[in-house]
Amino acid sequence: MAANTNDEPRDITFELAMATDLKGLGLFEGVGTNSDGSTNFDLSRAPSRLEALVMLLRLLGKGADAKMYNGVCPFTDVPNWGRPYVAYAYDNGLTNGSSKTHFGMGDASCAMYLTFVLRALGYSDADGEDFTWDDPFTLAERVKIMPVGVDTKNFWRADVVAVSYAALYAANKGGTQALSESLEAQGVFSATQFKENTDERLLLAHTIPELRLEGDWPCSEELLQEKWAEIYPYYCRYHGLPTKILTEGVTWIWDGGAHGSDYVEYNAATNSVLMNRLNHHRYFSDDFHYDYEDLFLQCMHETSHLFWQAGSENIMTAFGQWAWEATALVAESMYFAECYNDYNHSNIRRFDCTEFCGWDAVNGVFSDSCKYDRTIANGSATDTFIYLCSVLSDEGEWNYFTKVNGLRIKRYEETGELTVTLDQYAALLDEAAEGRTIDGMKPSDWFRARAISNTDGEVGDYLITYPLRSIDGYAAVSYACWNRFVDGQGDKREKAYAGQSIKLKAFTPSGELVGSAAVQTDDHGIGGAELKLAPGIADNTALKVTATTTIGGKTMTASTYTIYDQFWVKPDVKERMYLVLLDANSDIVTDIKASDVKVTGAKSVDTSALSGGVLVLNVATGGTANINIGGSTFTLSQLIGVRVVPVTVR
Predict the structure, then answer these.
(1) Rg (CA), the chain
(2) CATH of 459-571, one of 3.50.50.60, 2.60.40.2550, 3.90.320.10, 2.60.40.1930
(3) In the chain, N or C terminus with fewer CB closer than 10 Å?
């Protein structure tokens, strides 16, 4: 049975994509414009009988004629905009009213709309010739105009869109041509327009592909199948629909130790994922929502890489492994936000504080194989993609990368090129944004300006520190120490300084030392520590944390910032932006007055923590605030969750 008849919350992501396609063909219109400039299709409500009739006329190729029709509408309850359509349909025997004087402005049922569409395909319900008006479902299933997900009980405009979209691919009665071909013949749209504005994969959007399991998995296959059916649709929302997986399914194989511990890989040629994490017990933890959650999400991550397949190969990014990983990793954070209201799945967002480490420090190499540790690169890259998705998706959706990835696939289909360069990818980011900006910049310019995008950093020794959690009751920081060099092939690589001694110190804005620790890097040249702080620090006070070490007789120092909050910020907090106010020496500024602060675009402005070097704003997710602090101006967009930004105000 294709229909969805329950009262569960509905995902209409792909019906929105269908509506956009139908609009491009001139077959569907919105009811207005959203605040971000996107079309408001109002899909989450029942269609009126009049709306259903207008859609029928468009599917018949008569929408333009009906709109300009001058005949008399015999019904008194039809609004002015709809009178030409009803008059045309009435005079051509396509509809009758609910009475001699009333058309009937109630809601259209699923049966009513299916009847309309079957008539558009040439089928007749007169005297039960092909079907009956009260039971169009059997024939609708047979001619494939009922995609999975259509709700026959709570029939929405989203369902109108899905049925209409399917009808374009359905054959007219007699099987001589598809409805789309009939409309092309009438000049409603061209074959080129149809190809450019439709994607037949959307008709399978709510179908769960087959998951094949091989090997002796540490958890039950029933759990894996259950979670696959539950979580796969979320990943489609954030990534876009897969290619081969959609029709061929995917195979997950438990390796069982043949390749050693923690070995994972995906294979586009065989459409499979190989998993092998032998420390099974780690998946039973209060940190997870169900047993083996971490294992399952690793499976989903590897499967995400298979969403963009071209035959036996993958469509890749050619400008850094970090972008390839982040394209897959972004879905996990968006899933946690939407499913669990965990807006800070990667702890409190530390992206802007990591950016503060500098252009050369965050990445500086082309691929993971050259990096001493991938943690910093992949984390920063993922947050970059989360920012883009948060700010540049359509209102109420998380569909930015469905657009970007769709454009990647389209580009491959047009050029045959499997890889995309940084310049090409930046252009796709702008195209998918449809004129929207992030931090006041075009997405391409913003993307290029991120530290993660620098894959040619200077050689030499590096020490960095950045927050484990940007807002916390501790000064919780990560640190890393390494050397970048040029190898014998002329490639830049990095090696960790393992066991490197580092001194950490935390200071209040006044320079008071309130916490310290002596630590060492691990074998990967990284580490983390929570500095227990002296009592008496007020909430929303900015702290400066310094890291100091000596390499080859040279003393190196790095700094970062955290905001003290004795209760820290809970994962479900969102729409909050914290600015850490700094001077040109990167010291915290505490003498800014409320009168020095001017902000537009924020829901609210809290200046109560200025004495602690912090300005707090409440900004809608995806919104942008324009900030003036004593003459220094900033344009900052709000990601999903919390944003902590060090800014230089003097």
Answers:
(1) 29
(2) 2.60.40.2550
(3) N
Residue 238 in contact with residue 197, Cβ under 8 Å? no
How is the chain split into domains, by residue range?
13-47+107-204, 211-350+368-446, 459-571, 574-650
Backbone angles phi, psi at 391, to 5 degrees: -90, -30
pLDDT in tens, 457-476: 999 999 999 998 899 899 99
**E strands present in 226-343:** 250-254, 265-267, 272-275, 309-310, 313-314, 316-317
Q: Note the pLDDT tens digit of each residue in 198-257.
A: 999 999 999 999 999 999 898 899 999 999 999 999 999 999 999 899 999 999 999 876
143: nearest Cα among 160, 110, 112, 120: 120
Task: Please give, one letter per residue, the 3-state secondary structure of 377-395.
Answer: HHHHHHHHHHHHHHHHCCC
Between 402 and 95, the higher pLDDT residue:
402
Fold matches, 459-571 and 574-650 = yes
Backbone angles phi, psi at 236, to 5 degrees: -65, -35
What does the pLDDT read at residue 174? 86
The kind and range of the H/E element at 312 are: none
Spatial separation of the C-alpha atoms in residues 274 and 277, rounded to whole Å: 10
The two three-digit tokens of residue 127, written as one number: 């005297």
Distance CA 563, CA 327 (A): 30
Q: How many helices (H) and strands (E) does the chain have?
A: 19, 26
Strands annotated E in 215-271: 250-254, 265-267
- The CATH number of 574-650, from 2.60.40, 3.40.50, 3.10.20, 1.10.3210, is 2.60.40
Query: Largest Cα–Cα distance of the chain, in whole Å?
Result: 97
Work out whether strand 211-214 and strand 39-40 pair parallel, antiparallel, or are unpaired: unpaired
In Å, how far from its chain's centre is CA 40?
A: 19
Residue 95 is predicted with a pLDDT of 82
* pTM score: 0.87
Rounded to the nearest angstrom, the gap between the alpha carbon of residue 587 and the centroid of all alpha carbons in its chain is: 36
List 164's β-bridge partners, or say none: none
Q: What are the tens digits of pLDDT across the range 153-169?
A: 999 999 999 999 999 99
Structural contact between residues 233 and 335, judged by C-beta atoms closer than 8 angstroms: no
> Residue 126 has what DSSP assignment?
G
